[in-house]
Specification:
Blueprint: H1 10-16, H2 29-48, H3 50-66, H4 70-80, H5 84-90, H6 94-111, H7 129-148, H8 152-176, H9 182-206, H10 219-229, H11 245-260, H12 264-279, H13 285-305, H14 307-315, H15 317-341, H16 351-355, H17 382-416, H18 419-435, H19 444-456
Helix pairs in contact: 2-3, 3-6, 4-6, 4-9, 6-8, 7-8, 7-17, 8-19, 9-10, 9-11, 10-11, 10-12, 10-18, 11-13, 12-13, 12-18, 13-14, 14-15, 15-17, 17-18, 17-19, 18-19
Length: 483
């Protein structure tokens, strides 16, 4: 008897005297030869130029893995932001490559349909219309500033950086409202900051100043990441069964690394977050006092253990002011003078790094002509540098992009009192405070928190009734009398 589907078995074929079908046979020459050629080319390239081959292979592998998973692509951008210097060792375009992969993954996913459910009323289909309009105004202001004062390739680089972060913010906001939960994104961000803190603590042991820098450009930049991560540290405990000590361990690492950066803006931002938390009722006064006591004790211990340069500031304040604080204030004043020179459209993107020496009243050098800061091409203030380069028009558009999510999420938080929303708002208060004392518009935390707040402040998806009935909000539920 034959097979039920009409296909003869191997035994029936043998009884019929026909040659059996081979157990294995190649389906085609291309499927067999192509992998061999690819492997041979990869091995040859790796032998001729290991660094370039590694970069290309990492780029291709990341594209193949992440393009079809939008949530993975978003998490890759979030998780690698605190390791920018390490990525630059592979390729200086690694960060831009991941952003491009995120855009491509978003386009592929959007081609398959919407990322989230319908929204109530007129907001259906227009959840990101206002943020997208604000981003368009920002990019228009950046373009106007560049056309008014074109500064060549450096200016175009700054324009591209603004466009990159703005587009990434919108895509993250759309993704966080769909396949990626905000709680999960915050957890990945915190874990990446914890790992970056561990790297910074290890490298600080062998450094001369024992200053925690980590895998980013400067200690102040690492402190900026940590300030954003501290309020979100509770998200690392995703289940009730997970131990609480894991949260406390992450908190201690983040706080210790933040103090180890010796960043004054980080200390000011931490105090501002404690004040906001107490004022809004998120943190009891006794806990706030205990936290400030711990921070002050750690700072005192740092001063006692590390006599340079903080100890030198206590014994010779004038020299410390001449080589650090005074120089930063001179740079801020130079940015203010540049703003007065062109208040509406600024002096063009990248103008501060190129032209601030012409507006500085004092030479930004310490005693003996030694540069006290390793990087003196920033205004040490996001507000002042943005106004100097983009004018009041660009500064207003930039902060409108950042503040609109805060306002919308604040209104939503007053209704649902979500813990994640409260923590994100608290983190936003910290980074805005630190950004007033540091130039941080070219790092991810401000844009990531804005995307988080856009997702957390969105209305709930519209739920269709089971039987399709539509009830009026003004209906009392009473049955009208018969006439």
């Amino acid at each position: 008897m034959g097979h039920p589907d009409g296909v003869t078995t191997r035994s029936s074929q043998l009884r019929a005297g026909r040659d059996p079908i081979p157990a294995t046979r190649p389906r085609g020459t291309l499927a067999f030869v192509l992998p061999l050629l690819v492997a041979a080319a990869a091995g040859l390239a790796l032998g001729l130029s290991p660094h370039a081959a590694l970069a290309v292979e990492a780029a291709v592998l990341s594209a193949l893995v992440l393009v079809l998973r939008l949530d993975w692509a978003a998490l890759a951008v979030i998780a690698t932001a605190a390791f920018q210097d390490y990525l630059d060792l592979i390729s200086p375009w690694a960060t831009q490559w991941l952003a491009g992969v995120l855009v491509l993954a978003w386009l592929v996913r959007r081609a398959q349909g919407p990322l989230h459910g319908p929204l109530p009323g007129s907001q259906h289909g227009h959840r990101l219309r206002v943020p997208a309009l604000l981003v368009a105004l920002l990019l228009g202001a950046v373009l106007i500033a560049y056309l008014a004062h074109p500064l060549g390739r450096p200016g175009l680089t700054v324009c591209a950086t603004y466009a990159e972060f703005a587009i990434v913010m919108l895509i993250l906001a759309d993704t966080l409202g769909g396949p990626l939960a905000p709680h999960r994104a915050a957890r990945v961000f915190v874990v990446s900051c914890v790992l970056a803190s561990c790297c910074g603590l290890v490298t600080a042991i062998g450094s001369g100043r024992h200053q925690v820098a980590g895998p980013v450009a400067s200690p102040d930049t690492l402190a900026f990441f940590l300030i954003a991560a501290v309020p979100l540290v509770g998200t690392v405990r995703s289940r009730e069964s997970q131990p609480v000590w894991w949260v406390w361990a992450c908190f201690v690492i983040l706080l210790g690394a933040g103090i180890g950066t010796q960043s004054r803006p980080a200390f000011v931002a931490l105090v501002a977050m404690v004040v906001v938390a107490v004022a809004t009722g998120l943190l009891a006064l006794r806990y706030a006092g205990a936290l400030l006591a711990v921070v002050l004790t750690a700072v005192a211990l740092l001063v006692a253990v590390l006599p340079m340069p903080i100890g030198q500031a206590l014994t010779d304040p004038q020299r410390y002011a001449d080589t650090n604080i005074s120089q930063r204030n001179d740079l801020r004043m130079a940015a203010f003078e540049m703003t007065l020179a062109s208040p509406v459209v600024g002096l063009g993107p990248a103008s501060f790094a190129l032209l601030h020496q012409d507006y500085a009243s004092v030479d930004d050098r310490g005693d003996g002509g030694d540069r006290a800061e390793p990087d003196l091409d920033t205004a040490y203030s996001t507000v002042l540098e943005a106004s100097a380069e983009l004018g009041v028009l660009g500064l207003g558009a930039l902060y409108a992009v950042w503040l609109f999510p805060v306002i919308r999420a604040r209104g939503r938080w007053t209704d649902d009192r979500s813990g994640v929303t409260a923590a994100t708002l608290l983190a936003a208060a910290g980074v805005f405070t630190a950004a007033a004392l540091e130039t941080q518009q070219y790092t991810l935390p401000l844009w990531f928190l804005s995307a988080m707040l856009l997702a957390l402040g969105r209305p709930e998806p519209r739920r269709t009734p089971v039987f399709g009935a539509v009830t009026s909000a003004r209906s009392s539920g009473q049955v009208p009398p018969r006439s």
